[in-house]
TrEMBL record:
Species of provenance: Muricoccus roseus
Domain Thiaminase-2/PQQC per the UniProt entry, residue ranges: 25-227
Name used for this protein in its record: Aminopyrimidine aminohydrolase
One GO CC term, this protein: cytosol
Entry function: Catalyzes an amino-pyrimidine hydrolysis reaction at the C5' of the pyrimidine moiety of thiamine compounds, a reaction that is part of a thiamine salvage pathway.
Pfam (any one): TENA_THI-4
Keyword check for Hydrolase: yes
Amino acid sequence: MPMTVPLGREGGLFRALRAGAAREWDAYCWHPFVQGLAEGTLPLAAFRRYLVQDYLFLVQFARAQALAVVKAESLEAMREKGRVVQAILDETKLHLVYCREWGLDEAAVLAEPEAPETVGYTRWVMDQGFRGDILDLEVALAPCTIGYGEVAMRIEAHPGRLRDGNPYENWIVQYASPDYQAVARGAAERLDRLGESHGGAARIASLTRVFAEASRLEADFWQMGLNAS
Ligand SMILES: Cc1ncc(C[n+]2csc(CCO)c2C)c(N)n1
């Protein structure tokens, strides 16, 4: 399994969660679906299934991030989370363009029902926000944002990584880009700061359960793609 230097700072909340949920985190970040992306061997049908559901996922994920505007700890954090919501809503439009390149037209994507894995993951994240505070919600959101940064780094570090003629090259490059890596790093740093301000150390057991469950739901999402092939 390719290893990378984790994001966040040593002794910070993100690294504590990542270590506490190492089994679920590794199963997510180095899922067979991810290995298939890296080696260019993932069946095209698995990726198409993933792409369609990922559009539906993004719409629901924007709603979950909007809940973080509501739950934010400060006016500055509200502004920052508002920008995250806008970025995801813009991303949904680009996602439809990307789907089109994969032969999936807009009408087909919009007509697709949400899979149980998509409903299960996104509504569970929102529920963590409704029942808890901003830290519970950010921990539930973290595997999505930070995880894709680590997934891309692991793919880049994989000795079996195919570059020439890999059908998934532009997907990989999108998340390996300095721009996306900065987003992932920023999310890990925000989690570390919230850990300090919101009593993360005293809450580590319950926060680790939330982080592990989100990681498990991410792995289920990859598996949903593989199950279609
Ligand atoms: C199942 C699934 N999990 C994570 C992502 C990655 N992702 C979703 S929204 C967003 C913007 C930052 O919050 C990022 C990186 C995805 N596309 N699909």
